[in-house]
Every structure is written in structure tokens, then in C-alpha cells.
Design goal:
single chain; 298 residues; mainly alpha; 9 helices; 76% helix
Length: 298
Amino acid sequence: MAESKVELRKLRDFGENFNDTFSFIRQNGKPLVKAFFSICGIFLLIHAIFNGIYQSRNFGFLDRIRNIGANPVTTDTDVPSVFSIEYFMLLIFGMLAYTAILTMTGSYIKHYDENNGEQANVDQVWQIFKRYYLRIFLYMIPVNILVFVSIFFCCFPVFYFFTVLAPFPIVVILEDLSFGDAFSRCFIIIKNNFWISLAIYLVAGMIYYASSTLVGFIVGLVVGLASYFTTKDIGTTVGLVTSILNIFSSLFLLILIISIALNYFNLVEQFDGTGIMRRIDNLGNTENNNFDNIEEQY
């Protein structure tokens, strides 16, 4: 029996969030990964190139120390600068890549939601992606600054703003709101659901971290050993390994983002009841009712 499509707009408890997260990934894994590399790939590639250059130059200093007898460090110019051009390019393209992943995932979910669980191809995701990418990038700057500044006011403000604003890009994409409206919307829908949302995001973050670290470590170890025994260059080895780790970490971000998106639908369903209204509108419409045998929740 074919597995039922994931109904996005419904109430979910803690466990159902993760069950549906992995069900969604299992059902949409192929088109999601294809869209991920097709749309976000260029950002990840450029980020990986600058990361490789930056790490190679910084850890290449260790090679010069190791070979100090043959190539002594004689000037200050041999010591790499931490805040180099590569460092700032690394930050910029890291932000661009992260925004691309957020926007791509949100775009896929928007298409899925608006088309009754239909999988999206790359072109369909791209059409939505290009409408929101620049907006998400600009909107996330003040949001990230707010979260960063809250670090200096002890732990709770960090967790508070992170929890409230985690679905912010999803709100912008799915509801097509301005910055102010999306910002206010995040505070409205979180009412009475802060702690469960925090728990979901923390567990989803741990799953993301553990998955990306385990797979990235295995692949990074193989690539690192092959690179080191081929080049005998620590800088090159570190650059390659960290670049691969970043790409794998970015791919596993889909778990965290989808979990956040499903919790957003849960919050909206409690506040607006849009899923129930949509199912009422679709009663008797067998052509568009693609979510059969889904238990109603109130």
C-alpha cells in the first residue's frame, strides 16, 4: 500500500512533527535533493572554493613550521592574517548559501502546499525561489543581528528570539508578507506554544548536527587521508575536508528546516484553522482531495 502524502496543515504533537518530517523527506527526497544541488549548488561551490583557499592558507602555516629547517619563517608576511579577503568572502557566500537553502526549501514546501501534495520539479521551485531569494536575504540581516545581539544578554533571550523567529523565512514565503508583517506574525502564532516549539527545534538541531557530523566525518576522513598521502600538505587537506563537511552539513539542514516548517503549520492551524477550512472546501471534490485516510485532529 502506498504511503499517504504528508498533510501539511494539521495539528501535530512533538512526536508527529518528527514522524512527518522524515516521511516528507522520504517521499520527496529525490526532487528535494535535485532542487538543492541545482539551485543552491553554485552558492555552495563558491563558498567551498573560498573556504578551501582560506583554510589552505591558514593551515599551510603549519607546513612551513614543520619544514622550518628547509623553509624558515623569516618575516611577518609568512604568518597568515585571520581577517583576510578570503575570510570576508567566506562569510558573504556562507550567508548567500544559507539563504539559498532556506528559500529553496520554503519554495518547495510552498508548491507542495498549494498543489495538494504534488512534488515540485526544479523549474517550479526556481520560479518561486527567484521571487523570494533577495527578499529573504535582506530580511534575515536584521533578524540575525537581533539574535546575535541577544547573545550578550544571557541565555534566555537567545533561545527566545531563536524560537520565535525560526519560522520567519517560512512565514515570508508561504504567506507572502512584508518584513514587519512577518515579524509580527511570528510573535502572534507562537503564543502558548513556545516551550514545545523550543523542544522541537532543539531536537531537530541535534538530529541535524549528529547526522551531518557522522556522515561528514566518514567522507571527510576518506578524502582527508587520500589528500594528505597524495600531497603531504596539511593546508590543502584541511581545506578539502572542511569544504566537504560544509556541503554535507548544508544538505542535512533540510531536516531542521522541514521540521521548523511543519511546526509552523501546526502553529498556524491552532491559530487560524486553515487546514480544516481547506478540507471543508474540498469535501466532495475527489479530483483535488489527495490526502485520503488522514485522521482529523481538533
